[in-house]
Amino acid sequence: MAAYGALVSLMYIIDQIQTHPRPPISIDQNQVESLTQLISSLQKFLEIYYPQRGYTEEEDEWESCIAEAAYHAEDVIESYIVDQIRARLKIDVQHIISFQFYQGLQKVIEDMNLIKIEIEEKVVVQDQLHVMKSVNPAAGSSRSTSTRKNVTMIGFDDVLLQMLDKVTGGGLNLQILPIVGMGGIGKTTLAQITYVSPLVHYHFDIRAWSTISQEYNAREILGQVLGQVDKGNEVDLSEDEQGLHLYQYLIGRRYFIVMDDMWNIEAWDQVRRFFPNNKNGSRIVVTTRLSNLASQFNYSNGLHLKFLDEYASWDPFCKTVFGEEACPLELEDVGQKIVKGCKGLRLSVVVIGGLLSKSGRTKESWGLFEKNLSSIVNLEENRSCLQVLYMNYNNLPVYLKPCFLCMGTYVEDAVIPVSYLVPFFVAMGYVKPIIGKCLEEIYSRRVCRRTC
């Protein structure tokens, strides 16, 4: 969310100036207090108000006004800092004087306060209307304790049995087993379920997982596998040294390797010589969205994942939303439309079902989801997946959105160490201070609460 991120950034700048041993500028203390109070108030509004309702054009306009005001405040402060530095270096003696800076910042504070007052007045009116229109206020509070059921198995019962049969049977020669299908259809999920299956764990001596992606690197692929099968021996080795070490380690052992998200045959060609055919039933599973790539392996033992039909989608959808409870009769019609809008994609069923499990169980609430979903049904495949995921992003708590967007600075499938993220989020001001606790401890506890 741009507005929340802008407010966080502005607060960070003010904190840096206030705590710096030799700040480049000084800000009037009354202005500091007014500005920080306004920032905190607007942040609280964004955190509490937005996640509870769908977005409207008016609310989008509020967010734009908040973001614009925060950016303007940053410009005023940073421009004054630059002018003061240039003046001290005698590069430009025509620097802005303190009184002009005071006036500029005061104008920002007044504008931001007007936005706050306007929003508060309109929120009161909307809340009154919302209460008047509410037919069943308690509907959203009803939750089944069984909705925490593992939903990763959605629509995989039959194909999982087929996959396990191919992995553990089919002769002793090394086999490459492609899992093929479009993005969001469940290739990686099926591979993961197979990978952690007790049957696979018992059947193979060694298991390892490697992520390939479009920007593949043979050394990284070998390093990923070697780091799992023989920890500590992948460091500071060349590609050939890694490959030789891996080959020697795999000789005589029955191994199961997953190569996830392969985009071209060259990625396999660069590493295939390091995987010996021990003639003991070893298997390599390759997930790819490209049918022509799967055909280049010259094996017909893989699986081509198909779309779920509406009947096959309905049962797992209901289990995702209601757990072991049945879908209420008044929601069946709109629920069927939502399932149809998922177009047989397991990713869509999981994401939309997960969102609905946290929303009010009313026809009005579900109707908004159905309306939003129907607008993306006819988009091309990749855009459709992205739009479904955006719906999930849009329902994140507002304070998590800047954290999520920071992940965009990393390349696809990058390994992100938590030891780096914690101080990074702290430095960016995404973690609010609590008296008597260090920020790193606060963040770590929040992560633990959300992952337990």
As residue ranges, the low-confidence spans are 51-55, 127-152, 448-452
Shape: flat
Radius of gyration: 28 Å
Structural class comes to mainly alpha
How much helical structure, as a percent, in the residues?
Answer: 55-70%
Question: How many domains, in number, for the residues?
Answer: 4
Helix count, DSSP H or I runs of 4 or more residues: 19
Strand count: 5
Query: CATH homologous superfamily of the largest domain?
Result: P-loop containing nucleotide triphosphate hydrolases
Describe this structure in words.
- There is one protein chain.
- The protein is mainly alpha-helical.
- The protein folds into four domains: 2-134, Single alpha-helices involved in coiled-coils or other helix-helix interfaces, CATH 1.20.5; 157-304, Rossmann fold (3-Layer(aba) Sandwich), CATH 3.40.50; 319-399; 417-451, no CATH class.
- 58% of the residues lie in helices and 6% in strands.
- The protein is built from 19 helices and five strands.
- The chain has helices at 2-19, 29-49, 57-88, 98-133, 157-168, 187-195, 198-203, 218-229, 239-250, 265-269, 291-295, 310-322, 329-341, 346-356, 363-374, 381-394, 401-406, 418-427, 439-451, and strands at residues 175-180, 206-211, 255-260, 283-288, 303-304.
- A five-stranded parallel beta sheet has the order 2-3-4-1-5, sandwiched between helices.
- The radius of gyration is 28 Å and the shape is flat.
- The relative contact order is 0.10.
